[in-house]
Amino acid sequence: MVIGLLSMTAIGAFAATQFIKISKKNNQICVESNGIADHEVGRFPRKGNPHRIKTQKIKFCVTANPIKGDQVRMVRTVGIAKNGIIIRPGTADYYDASSPRGHSRDSSSGWNLDGMGPNNTLGLDRERAHVDNRGLYHYHGIAPTLAASLSDSRIGWAADGFEIHYIGDSAKPSWILKRGMRPTAPGGKYDGSYNEDFEFVSGFGNLDECNGAVSQGTYKYFATHAYPFFPRCLFGKNISKFR
Question: Which three-class secondary structure state does DSSP give residue 71?
């Protein structure tokens, strides 16, 4: 059964025909797309991001019957939005004083850059997205245009099959900015530039450590305006890998 099929043009600095197909078969929901957004995107390359958008061959299938477990699993590619754009809030970049850019994929510092950090170090556009070295355009935070276009609250699916929803400020994460100074380089106050600047405080908000909660009798993940913006971990027992 085909749930949705759309072909349209993304306008702006990068223009290409979008392809997306959403189908349900054999207890799986599959999203196929060419990675082209249905909204205007920023001009790439740009400061902080030297890559160009390229069409992709994306097929992301998840279970239609997700089961919540007790253990969390850290993931980098969290899921996919219903417009066919990958949701990947985490980054592979770490503070690195020896790098001309101040960061690299050397994780020895232990300070992992957050794409939504206050300095926009990794060059996100207005839709809170950018491009990786393969030309894959992907979201680090909720895209304003996507949020404004919703007919309901669902924006996509996580890799474990649970839905991802956006309900504005009604979903409040339980992660908070630490107080004080970082104990090692890069030093300075905790300001949200790095994932390690935050800590989880159970009960601070109404979401768990993976930005999820039971809503209307069903477990769901939520996109939020505050860190972690999207889930950074998943509770589902069956997690699909992105291809």
Answer: strand
Q: Domain extents for the chain? A: 68-236
Amino acid letter, residue 224: T
**Sign of the Cα pseudo-torsion (188, 191, 195, 199, in order):** positive
Q: What is the pLDDT of residue 12?
A: 47
Count Cβ atoms within 10 A of the Cβ of residue 32 and give its class: 0-12 exposed, 13-18 middle, 19 or more buried: middle
pLDDT band at residue 7 using 50, 70 and 90 as cut-offs: very low
User: What pTM was computed for the model?
Assistant: 0.93
C-alpha pair distances (Å), 206 with each of 32, 125, 170: 33, 29, 9
In contact, 207 and 174? CB cutoff 8 Å: yes
Average pLDDT (110-134) is: 97
